[in-house]
Amino acid sequence: MLELSRIRTDKKQVIAALSKRNINAESTINELLNLDVQWRRVKQELDGTLEEANRMAKEIGQCYKEGRVDEGNALKQQTTLLKKKEGELKGESEALESAILHMLYQIPNTPFQEVIKGKDLNDNQVVFQSGKAPLFDFEAKPHWDICKEKQIIDFELGVKVTGAGFPFYRGKGSKLQRALISFFLDEASAAGYEEYQAPLMVNEESGIGTGQLPDKEGQMYHDSTDNLFLIPTAEVPLTNIFRDELIQQPDFSYKLCGYTPCFRREAGSYGKDVRGLNRLHQFDKVEIVRIEHPDHTANALEEMVEHVKGLLDKLELPYRVLRLCGGDMGFASAMTYDFEVYSAAQEKWLEVSSVSRFDTFQANRLKLRFKDHDKKTKLCHTLNGSALALPRVMAALLENNQGADGRISIPAALKPYTRFDYI
RNA sequence: GGUGGGAUGGGUGAGAGGCUGAAACCAACAGUUUGCUAAACUGUCGUACGGGUAACUGUACCGCGGGUUCGAAUCCCGCUCCCACCGCCA
What does each C-alpha distance from A76 to A69, A87, A174 come to in angstroms? Predict the structure, then answer.
């Protein structure tokens, strides 16, 4: 959620930034500021009324103490009028406040200066590219065929036991999953991220803290008996560790990572791109999360990008890095780099990681603040990224590393983890 | 599931209708002094929002939501969460 004070002071800049998302926020912002003016007027009047009531209450107490009972009773009479006024103003103020909050919830984050205006994924900028797609002198198979043949991932069995999008991993498929998780976690630890095992369910406050709630609850699985939500990403529990925290020094930097399964309802996304591992309701991911001083955000983001590049390099996968245009960025993001791996058999790019800076957008909702050098309390910056999401990495490994003999070779970096060289 | 106890500032924790935005201690910050990886002393020190260029000032907040009262951290009701013991289960 954007800071209201910023919208007040930098209205033009906010509207200009939001236009990069291809949305015209001017009327919304004007309406918001209009409500804000009203709210502040009511707030002033309410505060004044309360002040008077407080003063009178003290006076009445004084009267009784000194035995001036009649005087006290007379004053009491007067308070009834004040109380009526107070009640009315309170109602007005609360209504305005909730209207303002409701509007703020619906305004996405302002894109950072480097982000270009754009409509959709076609306007994203490729900022880095690495590796070459393998050339096959045979008919390369898509991963869903490989999985079936080698009995390493069973989608139909998942349908039987749970439903579409909940596959079983078997044998070497299961071991490869485990190897990837361990590899990613070890790499993150080596880069200074503290490893966490997080709860897979979160409460409502946490959902609000990272922005899944209130508007996007349809994307999460919900247990209504206990009002808990299955996490769509480890970002939710890991970032909410810091909810309602006030960090006392300005020289902080928190780097955490965690492996979790992720659960996504993916309501409304059917049709293309859902085949095999491309889109699942349950998948595994190692997430990295950082809480930083605003001065260090740019640097932290670059570090995270380098970290993810390192992972893909070690896995020997051809990939590219995109800086998303305004129109393709997530709601809470100020700038996002997407990592896409090229799958030779499917002949397309598969997104395997998304690394974003949120600046104060999440921290504002989380009430995550710190004391700066100037002793002022300010909002922290949050960042996160996938490092990495497993299914599409798996798909790319299976598809790109298939040989003419039908075997899938395991990249050298993974062999210590799989303890087999081929599937 | 049952019974009992609890939730107060960055932390520990006192307060039990007006003298309490809240003792004390710890932490933090600033200064003084002695000098040696630090101690002692003094001072400052909650958050959010509004008004004000500012000094400052007003309001709200003692888990959350209601109620009683001129006045609530304090009394009453509901809820949530935590802790302990018992039961059940991993």
Answer: 10, 17, 76
